[in-house]
Amino acid sequence: MTIGPLETIAPLCPENVRLLGMDVGARTIGLAVTDSGLLLATPLETLRRTKFTQDLPVLKKAIDDYEIGGYVLGWPVNMDGSEGPACDRVRAFADEMTKHPAIFGADPWIALWDERLSTASVENFVDEFVEKRQTRRRAKDSGLIDKLAAQMILQGAAAYLKERF
Predict the structure, then answer these.
(1) Which residues does 165 contact at the CB level (< 8 Å), separation at least 6?
(2) Considering only CA atoms, which of 160, 164, 111 is closest in space to residue 2?
């Protein structure tokens, strides 16, 4: 199994496959997918989390529908670069993925990509186009913020891979 920072495991990234990006939060998982050329990340949906085993059917459908060959998880390090409790949650999620080879693959490639300020950037983007704070709350409640954050994380990771390989 290959789990680690993208900068470390990038050379092991499967070629010509789509990647599934995930912004794993305590209550939601934002999902996004790339094309096989890693040029464009597209937001898919936001999954309301319950427990991992109940999240699996939605994840499996996305993996099957888009023929996913690798995964990028947002890595929520603190502003000073240290790892906190949110990183523990993402690491536990990645470890759970490896326990389900029929869904995620026998040896899944799981990259962790620094997501500092991704959600804040998306919220600022939404604020640029709306005038009411209530609309931001609706955007969050509808899952828009989380799937756009997943897209932003995945687009950054895809750009990194394209630049270096």
Answers:
(1) 10, 11, 13
(2) 111
Q: How far is CA 125 from CA 119, 138, 146, 148, in A?
A: 10, 14, 13, 10
Position 123 scores a pLDDT of 66
User: Which phi-psi region, left, alpha or beta, contains residue 105 (left: φ > 0; alpha: ψ -120 to 50)?
Assistant: left
Delimit the domains of the chain by residue range: 2-164
* CATH number given to 2-164: 3.30.420.140
Distances (CA, A) of 100 to 53, 78, 92, 94, 105: 10, 29, 13, 11, 7
Residues 6 or more apart in contact with residue 27 via CB below 8 angstroms: 48, 49
First to last CA, the chain: 21
Cα(1)–Cα(123) distance, integer angstroms: 34
In this predicted structure, the answer to whether residue 53 has a pLDDT above a threshold of 60 is yes
Q: Which residue has the higher pLDDT, 112 or 164?
A: 112
Asked if 73 contacts 110 with a C-beta cutoff of 8 angstroms, the reply is yes
Q: What is the pTM of this model?
A: 0.89
